[in-house]
Design brief:
By secondary structure, the protein is α/β, with parallel strands linked by helices. 34% of the residues lie in helices and 11% in strands.
Length: 217
């Protein structure tokens, strides 16, 4: 782990070493979004922060390493991918009121439990952190019955945060027999109808994939 990543030297070195000995080393690079000097060449080239320089160097280094090792036996396609994470607050709405302090006119603020503007990827990685799942595992995005579904490490974890979750969609999803599956609470709808759909979803999994662990956020 490099807590002072700078331009990404450590990440570059790890990729190069993997290419040389067919290894599978991984690294974590940490860099504050420190702004670049407005008079610097980097700033003039469009890099507003050091972290932006780091990301671009890793991209270019990865491309060069792939080109240099294209004909090398055993590593025709070396792994030069990387993911970028930024520290942020929770995706869940903060609720700091007791039942006695709750008024009927304010109930609408509790309908959606996720903050506005958060993407499906935001929710997915929060779930991975909550469940202690490795953030570097492969993730595949598929469309099933018109809904966006994430498959993490094959069927280790399946997530869908779209609205309109119904039995037809869940039945098809259950045939994949995921180890764990996660949905957004308001994805089932609201009120009694939403509760009914949620119960039916649980029953579908019990019938089609009883080993699946279901989580709702």
């Amino acid at each position: 782990m490099d807590f002072f990543s700078g331009s990404g030297t450590t990440a570059h070195s790890v990729m190069q070493l993997n290419a040389e000995n067919n290894g599978n080393l991984k690294c974590i690079s940490v860099q504050l979004p420190e702004v670049t000097d407005e008079k610097s060449e980097a700033f003039k080239a469009g890099y507003k922060s050091i972290s932006e320089i780091s990301k671009e160097r890793i991209r270019r280094a990865g491309k060069k390493i792939k080109e240099d090792n294209a004909d090398k036996e055993g590593i025709e396609n070396p792994d030069t991918g990387f993911r970028v994470f930024k520290i942020d607050s929770s995706n869940m709405v903060d609720v700091h009121v007791t039942p006695d302090d709750t008024e009927l006119k304010n109930m609408e603020m509790f309908v959606e439990n996720t903050k506005k503007g958060r993407s499906s990827e935001d929710l997915l990685f929060q779930v991975l952190l909550d469940w202690g799942v490795n953030l570097s595992l492969p993730i595949i995005r598929e469309e099933i019955a018109g809904k966006e579904v994430f498959f993490v490490d094959g069927n280790a974890l399946v997530a869908c945060f779209d609205d309109g979750i119904n039995e037809e969609f869940v039945t098809e999803l259950a045939t994949r027999k995921p180890l764990r599956v996660v949905f957004r609470d308001d994805g089932f709808g609201s009120g009694k109808d939403g509760d009914s759909v949620k119960i039916n979803v649980e029953q579908v999994f019990k019938l089609k994939s009883p080993a699946t662990d279901i989580k709702v956020i």
